[in-house]
Amino acid sequence: MALSAACARGGPARRLPADGGAPLLYVALGDSTVEGIGATSSSTTYVAQIHRRLRTRYPGTRAVNLGAGGATSADVVANQLDRAVKLDPQLVTLSIGPNDITTRVPVAEYERNVDAIFSRLAAGTRAVVVANLLPDLAVTPRFRAHEAKPAVARLTVEFNAALARQGRRHGVELVDLYGPSQAEVPAQPELISRDGYHPSDAGYARWAELVWAGVERRLGRP
pTM higher than 0.90 for the full model? Predict the structure, then answer.
């Protein structure tokens, strides 16, 4: 499932500065995967790895990680979104949804929250927004043999469809983690941390690789 963004409401897609000397602020929004649960250090989270890659193109890049373990889409709206807008970032990444699934948030409510996040970022910032589709939660050790596996598998697909709809509507760069996770996690158990759910250092490195491909599509042309 290869996805790329449509232009926001028919307008031109936002891009990062063409000038590598331009100041750039990167803000990460989302849940425990953004915070980096499962990583052995703050330097091996996917946010830190994206920051390092940005600095090779924009040496003055700063990063602010607002991700919080346990966060749902409603928590991003209530606790992270205002802070992000006030920072006036040039790049925002969003990863949110698994906690909505496990706490049984209706898909329609999740979609409304995602719409609110993307709408506010579009209206209140100049940021390029990159969001990832959710990995397939059902292939993780936590759910692979769990009675909830079929429901989790179905909801992951439905939540991803909602996220993709809103992403296309708002000109967000969409990154597919779902397809790669289905193919790679069962064959490479080292991608998952000891808790059987969150990525390991290797998993976050792969996550960063996929998200960076989305960021690269929005780099300004010199």
Answer: yes
pLDDT in tens, the chain (222 residues): 344 434 444 457 899 999 999 999 999 999 999 999 999 999 999 999 999 999 999 999 999 999 999 999 999 999 999 999 999 999 999 999 999 999 999 999 999 999 999 999 999 999 999 999 999 999 999 998 898 999 999 999 999 999 999 999 999 999 999 999 999 999 999 999 999 999 999 999 999 999 999 999 999 876
DSSP, collapsed to helix, strand or coil, labels residue 192 as strand
Which structural domains are found in the chain, ordered by start? 8-216 (3.40.50.1110)
Instruction: Find the farthest-apart pair of alpha carbons in the chain and give their distance in angstroms, rounded.
Output: 53
> If residue 124 lies in a helix (H) or strand (E), which one and from where to where?
helix 107-124
* Cβ atoms of 94 and 76 closer than 8 Å: yes
User: How far apart, in whole angstroms, are the C-alpha atoms of residue 205 and residue 199?
Assistant: 9
Task: State the pairing for strand pair 91-95/128-132.
Answer: parallel
Give the DSSP letter string of 58-76.
-TT-EEEE---TT--HHHI
Handedness of CA 51, 53, 58, 60 (dihedral sign): positive
Q: Are 149 and 175 in contact (CB under 8 A)?
A: no
Kindly tell me the sign of the dihedral angle through the C-alpha atoms of 17, 175, 171, 76: negative
Q: Dihedral, CA atoms, 153, 158, 159, 165, nearest 10 degrees? A: 150
